[in-house]
Amino acid sequence: MTGRFITLEGGEGAGKSTQIKRLAAALEKKGLTVVTTREPGGSPGAEEIRALLVQGEPCRWDALTETMLIYAARADHVKRTIGPALVANKWVISDRFNDSSFAYQGVGRGLPREFIRRIDSIVLDDFSPDLTLILDLDVEIGLKRAGARGGAEQRFENFDKDFHQRLRQAFLDIAARSPDRCVVIDANQSEDQVAAAIWSATQKHFSL
Ligand code: TMP
Q1: Which atom of ligand 1 is nearest to the CA of 17?
Q2: If one looks up domain 5-206 in CATH, what number appears?
Q3: Which residue from 77, 96, 155 has its CB within 8 A of the most atoms of ligand 1, so it is best to mutate?
Q4: Is the entire prediction scored with pTM above 0.85?
Q5: Interhelix angle 161-177/139-149, nearest 10 degrees
Q6: Per-residue pLDDT tens for 11-59?
Q7: 194 burial level (CB within 10 Å; 0-12, 13-18, 19+)
Q8: Which atom of ligand 1 sits closest to the CA of residue 146?
C-alpha cells in the first residue's frame, strides 16, 4: 500500500494554497500523514529552478526552454519529495503539477500538446495524480487577487489577459478529458464553501 497523490490546479489567484492547508488538516483528522508541496519547486533543487521561472520578464524564456526547466524541476521533485513520501504511505498534496504544463506551456504559450505529452511521458513514465481538483475562477477576479499578493513571483501573471483566458478553458478541457481523475471546483464561492466542495469531492473519490 502506498499513499495517495492529490493535485490542485487552476489559474492565478484561485486560492489553492489556502485550500491545500484546509484539505491537509481534514485528511490529518482522519489519521493520515500528509505532505504538502508545490510546483515549480518542492525540493531544494527544484526550488532553485523555480526562481528562474517565476521571476523576471515574461519574455525571459521561450516556451521550449521554459518547458524543459519545468520538467527538470519536476523530475527532481518527484524523485526527492513526492516518490519517497508515497512509498512511506504518506498522502501528498501538490499545489500544481503536470496539468499546469499542458495549460500554461501548451495552450498558454502555444507548444503543441503532443510535444509536452512526450516529455511528460519520458520524465514521469505514466506517473500521474490520483485526484486533481481544478479550481475554476473568473480570470479578472483571479488576476486581481494574485496582483494584490504582490512580491517578486509575478512573471506568469504578467502575460496578457488573453493568455489567462485561454488557461481557464485549458483546465476545463483537461477536466473533460480525464473525468475519472479531475473534479472542477467553483472557486467563486466563500473560502468555507470551496473547502466543503473540495472535501466532499475528496471523500467521494477515495471513499473516506
Ligand atoms: P503559483 O503562482 O501557483 O505558485 O505557480 C507559479 C507559476 O508557475 C504559475 O504562474 C504557473 C506557472 N507554472 C507553469 O507555467 N507551468 C507548470 O507546469 C507549473 C507547475 C507552474
Answers
A1: 3
A2: 3.40.50.300
A3: 96
A4: yes
A5: 110
A6: 999 999 999 999 999 999 999 999 999 999 999 999 999 999 999 999 9
A7: buried
A8: 2
